[in-house]
Design goal:
Helices cover 62% and strands 13% of the residues. The chain has two helices and two strands; from the N terminus they run H-E-E-H. Helix 1 packs antiparallel against helix 2.
């Protein structure tokens, strides 16, 4: 699996380098009305990919947090209903254990 991941990342970087070599002419981006930035197309593409990667990372963190909260609530409900903690498949933290 590591070889597949490495290959995909390598091919993506190679495609990005080839794209940036072919598209070095400056282009203008209108960010807000009246504000315009001019940079090479490759730089703009790399910047957009970076923003996309950060948004995906934030979405993954949010998704993980939602799963954690859901799992925590489910465990709390089961424990409060008398379901033995040992059957949940998790260990209680040391400061909560009675030994």
């Amino acid at each position: 699996m590591k070889a597949l991941n490495f290959s995909l990342i390598f091919l993506l970087c190679l495609a990005l380098v080839l794209f940036s070599l072919e598209n070095s002419q400056p282009t203008a981006i209108a960010i807000v009305r009246g504000v315009e930035v001019e940079a090479p197309l490759a730089v703009e593409l790399i910047f957009a990919m970076g923003i996309g990667a950060v948004l995906v990372w934030l979405f993954a963190l949010l998704s993980k947090l939602q799963r954690y909260v859901t799992y925590s609530r489910r465990c709390t409900r089961r424990v409060s209903a008398g379901f033995p903690v040992s059957r949940l498949g998790i260990r209680a933290p040391r400061h909560l254990s009675r030994s």
